[in-house]
């Protein structure tokens, strides 16, 4: 019997949030983390072990100071983790468990005198090499800012790198530190010597992405021969290239001694010179390095590059294997166990799909899993030559699904665990979610997602919400979203439509590339066409239409307020929006004379457009004070402009939030405020009354 609960803001924030599950060496157990919020008690964070055959799980630890929990390579039933201790110190612990999860041993293998994170492990002939990331002092040693007495809070900067998405850049740079775990006389593992700095360059911070939302651990890798990592260009040819990055290799002759060489940059036998590198990976035998590269001139054209460690030069895998560019943009990849193919995660028509590409001439990417959206994948058993993978996925109806898939496609995927029983626990069904297609602006069709409430009656007319996704080079996907969850919105009594307008990823490189060359022209016209197509659906009441978006979506809301389309909506909601594109350029990348005309052309704050805001419908503006991506002054400017023009508007502020609302209590206020605002102006459900 499935126990159901209606999806409300309250039940939504209380749902357990599971991470990616990682199998042990023999594929019998899985390790994952889960966080659960309980009103009045805060968030409980757990690391759990799952029996992959039955799906049952048990608690490993609920110590909220524990992080970076990993299976220890070549040590059956052994786990390593980092634990934040007092004064900024970090403990490296080793935990031994039995086949049914019983704790057999638990001890501290080492304590480091500074905060470290992003642990990586590599098994090497009976001992284990490991690396962590921490701040480096002037002499290159591990640095602890918590034990350094500092009377002033002043910061001094000499380049464009001042702030990340929600924090200021630290004066000390991060570096990768390494050592090895060896077995002592007592049979326990211990660290063989101090942590040593693999970077040894004051002008490099490694890995790249320490102040970005993506996981920086994805930007470095280990093998027996050394460490490969991504770092930003220390001397960009133009200030606008300050965030561009490259891949570096550091040979390690001994994991218990200082490296003899400084990092060496990988060169490319391709025209993709200046751009953004990510996801470096060693081949299983350590002879090759592969990584992704987005060219600065055309970030939509992501390439997979690969080269020999000995030559430190790389070639384009697409050209070598496929013969031409691949029309999808990969977000990550991993080598297969034998090293003869790569597993690639890429957006594909509104989902995160998993492909395999054989590393040979005349190969073509082969789809392994297209639905639900894949978030993580690991080889289930090192002895099966990659036949089975343990996949972590989600859909609009289910926030976490663990599955086993057969890469030969000889059998159907086997579900190990579904957090919501495919939505049944929340009273949801697959009939609520469907795809729509409509004629776009650039001689192409545009895809979108249409979500209906669980009590939907097609004989009645429902208010509609048009959600504009962030990006623009992002996408509305069939996956669980913890902020803009279309199913949660629909359950309040609305039909929710999420279009993948021009510039969205997953619909071809050309479609994505238009995000960089056409400003708001194509996306805006796509939204016009979308609303016109929705008006032809009998059960949609476009006279009660809501426009909502965050980030780029908020920017689009502001743009629309100055356009004729604004009259089609009864209310608007914009979160973390861009107000003035000229200032956006300055506080993100500095002066860029080449596109100053485009910045003004697509500027919502143009005086001729601001005059039109007086006719805007009621607008709810939301912003976090720690949003350094699009500063809170933009949200305040939107709100004060509307107030000055006499437009009904409200400003919701979060002093402790950044670009996203993370705190569960704040998320609850966010959802309640948004839904109350919509109900006030368009009602809810088929019998709702306009405010």
From TrEMBL:
Superkingdom of origin: Eukaryota
One Gene Ontology biological process: proteolysis
Molecular function per GO: serine-type endopeptidase activity
Keyword Transmembrane among record annotations: no
PANTHER family: DIPEPTIDYL-PEPTIDASE 5, SERINE PEPTIDASE S9 FAMILY MEMBER
Family to which the UniProt record says this protein belongs: Belongs to the peptidase S9C family.
Protein name, UniProt field: Dipeptidyl-peptidase V
Organism: Phialemonium atrogriseum
